[in-house]
Specification:
Layout: H1 4-13, H2 16-21, E1 27-29, E2 32-35, E3 47-50, E4 55-58, E5 64-65, H3 67-75, H4 79-89, H5 100-128, H6 131-139, H7 144-149, E6 153-155, H8 161-165, H9 169-172, H10 174-179, E7 182-185, E8 188-191, E9 196-202, E10 208-215, E11 224-226, H11 242-252, E12 255-258, H12 261-269, E13 275-277, H13 285-294, E14 297-302, H14 306-319, E15 328-333, H15 340-347, H16 349-357, E16 360-361, H17 362-371, H18 379-394, H19 400-413, H20 418-425, E17 433-434, E18 465-466, H21 477-487, H22 490-494, H23 496-503, H24 509-522, H25 532-538, H26 545-558, H27 562-591, H28 595-640, H29 651-661, H30 682-685
Parallel strand pairs: 12-13, 12-14, 14-15
Antiparallel strand pairs: 1-2, 2-3, 3-4, 4-5, 6-9, 7-8, 9-10, 10-11, 15-16, 17-18
Helix pairs in contact: 1-25, 3-4, 13-14, 15-16, 18-19, 19-20, 21-24, 21-26, 21-27, 23-24, 27-28, 28-29
Zinc finger (CHC2-type): 37-61
GO molecular function: DNA binding; DNA-directed RNA polymerase activity; zinc ion binding
GO cellular component, one term: primosome complex
Amino acid sequence: MIPEGFITSLLDRADIVDVVGRYVTLKKGGRNFMACCPFHKEKTPSFSVSPSKQIFKCFGCGKAGNAIGFLMDIERLDFPDAVRRLAEIYGMEVPEDRTPGRQEARKKARALSDFMKEAADYYTSCLRNSTKAIDYLKAREISGETAERFGLGYSPDGWHGLEAVFPGDRYKAQELLTTGLVLEKNGRRYDAFRDRIMFPIRSPKGTVIGFGARTMKGDEQPKYLNSPETPIYHKGSELYGLYEGRAAIVEKGRAIVCEGYMDVIQLSQAGFREAVAALGTSITPEHVKKLFKLSDSVYFSFDGDSAGRKAAKRALDAALPVISDDQAAHFVLLPPEHDPDSLIKAEGPEAYEREMEKSLPLTVFLKSILVEGKELIYAEERAKLVAQAKPLILSMKSAPVLKLSLMKEIAALARLQLEDLEREWGVATERKTVERPSSAPFPRPGGPYPGRFGGWDARFDWRRRPAPEPRIGVQDVRDRMLQCFLAYPQLLGEFSAQIEDEFVMSPSPAANRIVEVWRAAAGEDDGEPMSPAALLMRLSESPDAARYESLLAGELTLDTPEEGARLELRRAFLELELERVKARELVLGSSGAAIEELRRLKCRRTELMKLIEKAVADERVYRREQEDVSRTREFAKNELGEGATALSDNPKVRAIQELLFGKMRAGKPEPKKLPASSPAAAPAVAPPSASPFGAPPSPFGNPPAPAQ
C-alpha cells in the first residue's frame, strides 16, 4: 500500500498543467488553461485545467479530478499504477511497504519473475534453431514478425533442457519448482514442457508470469499445457495478449475476447490487435472488469460450435455483475464450422469484421438465451422464463438503467406488469408523489386558468407529479462555504476558530462535511496548506467524496478569487452566528427568564448586524474593483489593441492595473481613461447576471444593498 503522505507530497510537487500538457495542447484562457477534451469528441474546447487548484474539469462530458485521476483516465491505469507513473514523471521513488512479510513476498516474486524471464529467453533461442518448430508456425501461417511480437518459443524434446539454463543450486531452488517450469518425481526434477510451441504470458507491465504450451502433434493430448497458479500468476485475473494489445484496445475503443492463444495471434496478425483470451479457464468478472477499464466496449467472440456457445453464456454471466450503463458488451456468433482463426484464413479479415458488425448486444443475447426452447404461449413456459431471468438480471448491480429496461422487456415477454414482476422478485420500489396543497385551487375544464384560453392543463396536475430527484448542488450556504474551503484549503486555517464554534457540534450533514474537510486539511504533517487536488485525494475514501469533487469542479465555473472567497466566508460566518443568536433569543423570550442573557444577546445581535453591514460594504468595494479590472482588460483589447492598458481614475484600481499589466510601454499614445466606476454605469459594461469576478454568479448572491 502506498503511504498517504507520499501521495500528498507527490500531488503538491506535480503541476497538472505540465501533466495534462503532455497529452493535449493547452491554451491560456484567463486564470485557467483550455483544450478540446481528450475523453470525448468536441469542436469547441470545454476542457479546463486550473493551475491554482491543480484539478481538471470537462464541462462537456463531466470528467474531473487531479493529476492522478487524469493519468488513470487517459492511460486507463489503476490507482497504484497512476501514482507510480506520476512519480516517474517527477523523478520520485514510490516507497514500498517495508514490513518483513511484504519484503519477503517481494523477494519471492522477484525470484519467480527472474526464472520466468530466463526460461522465455531460452525458449525463444530454441525456436530460432528448430526447423521443425519454424515449419509448424509457417504451416499455421504465423509470420516471423508476429512470432517475435508475442515472444513465441519452443521447448526442446528433452527431459533436462532447463538444467543447463539454471545450473547448480538454482536448478534445485524451491522457487523454480513453484513456477511450474520443472516437475519433481522421486526426488528427481525434469522439464514440464517438452517438444511444444511456447506462448509466454505477460503481465500488463510486460513481465513474463507464465506459459502456455501447444503440442505440434495432431494426436497428442492434452493439446495445451499451462503454468500452474503462482504468487505472480492468477488465471482468473490475467488475459493472454493484454500486454501486446493494450494500446490497440485504448485506441480503437474496443476489446475482442476469444478462446485461445492461436485465435489471439491470428486476429492480431490480421489487424485485430485488440484481441485477448482467457488462460485455460472461463471468462471471469475480474477479466471483464479489467477490460472495461481500458475500453467501454467488449466483444466476446468464440467458436461457432456448441462449446463456443456455452463459453459465450459463461462470458455473459461474468459480464452482468460488472457492466455499467455507459458500457457495452457484444456477442459475436460465428458460423458453426468456424473459429476466428479458420474464418480469417478462409475468407479474410473483412469476413470477420462483418461478423463483428452483426454481433448481438448483451440484452439481445440474454433474451435469446432465456427464450430459447420455450413456447411462450403457455403460462408455465413464461413462468420458467421469469424464474431463469431473475438471478441474471438482479446481478446487474452497476447498471440500474439497463437493468430496469431488461426488467420491462422480461415483464412484456411474460405478459406481466412491471410492478408485478418487481414484487415477485422482491425489488418493488415505492414511487413517491407530491400531493397538491389542500389550499390551492385545482383547475377544472373550462375554468379561467391555467391554460392560455382557460381549461384544464395536465402540466398543472399536482396530484400525481413525481417527487423531484435529489441533486448535488450549492443549495445551502454551508455548501457554498464548503466549496470555498475546497478551492482554497488555506482558508480552513484562517477560519479554524469559527469552524470549531459553528460546526463541530452541529447535527447538520452540511456542517459535518465542513468539519471533515477541516480535519483532513489539519492532518498535513509539515504545516503547509495543501493544494485542492491533494485535499481531494485525502478525502477520496469519504462517503461524500463525489460531492466534494462536484463542488470543487463547480468552483472552476465560478472561478472565485481567493480574496472574494475570504470575504464571502467572513460574511457567511457572521450571518450564521446572527441566526443562532436570534434563535436563542426566541427560546429565552418564550421562557420569560434569563433577563441578563437576553440583554447580552441583544447587544451581540446589534454588533453582528453592524459587522455584517461592514462585511457587505467590503464585498461591494472588492467586487467593484474587480469589475474595474475586468472593464480595463476588455477596453484594452477592444479599443487599444492587445498589450495596451487603459488606466482607471481610481488609485486603488490603478495600483492593481500596474501590478497586473506593468507600466505603460514607452512610445504608446496616451491611453483614454475610463470613467470611475459607479453603480449606474456598471450595467452598461457587465450585465446584471454576470459575476463580478468574470464568471457566473456566486451561489451566495450579491450582497444586500444598504438600507435607505
